[in-house]
Amino acid sequence: MSILLIFENKNPDPWYTLLKEKLPEVTIEVYPEVKDASLVDFIVCWKPKKDIFNKYPNVKVVQSVGASIDHITNTQTLQPNTVVTRIIDTKLTQDMWEFLAAVVLGELKNISLYLAQQKEKKWKQHRYASFKDVTVTILGLGSIGGYVAQNFSGLGFKVKGWSNSKKQLSGVTSFHGKEGFKDCLRDTNFLINLLPLTKETRDILNTDTLGSLATNAYLINVGRGEHLVEEDLLQLLNSSMLSGALLDVFREEPLPEKHPFWEHERIKITPHIASLTNIESAAEQIIENYQNFLNKKNLVNVVSLKKGY
After folding, report:
1. Catalytic annotation on 224?
2. How far apart are the first and last CA of the chain?
């Protein structure tokens, strides 16, 4: 029995060091250095290359080191009895809220505009909106999205939220299912995407969706790059139907140097940092799951492969 770390676009060394310190008697290996593939029964991963799990026929548990699992389900063929788990961390949730609050408040009070004017030594004042007059809509009302929605409501914003199933959150007007989607988008000033990536949500940020928002609405995508139809966003920005966008996630990461997003004056880019996994707290969950696995106990933060989250 052994644990295998498979990381792409993330350094596995600190994870290996910490897990080895906490589980000194356990065989822990880092891909591709694996002595015996048949002994691997527990994989810890981030964005594994396509079909790489096929090399390890006896895997019973796959642990994502982030909150998402689409990087696993979209690239691997999983055995029916394989359990997939993820990291749910209160620090991740708080970090996401703080990031989104910073973005919305900065745009609402024209901070970016004044920074641009400073470069031109231009002194010009602009009107700004108050919290009570602004509608923030959250797509995805899971543990993170629900927390974000209620916090925006607590600041005084008008808040709406949409999810696959019905939710009841204090201070949030909630919509659900296909029938509630368009109603949720109407009159939105800031649209924040926090949806998981599934077959149903892929390409959900498109001309039809974004065109349903209020005039000069602002898009913030911290879900997945595959949620966004990039050409549609560029067209809506160029036609001034949207005032701008903050993108933290992309279809290809790192974002290619020649991608048009880099140069677009209405797009702001952050390198997938809205909320970064804390290795220490995440490792505690991984260790708990591994020990539960050995002792035939229920694992924590198991996801539904049918739902994709």
Report:
1. yes
2. 27
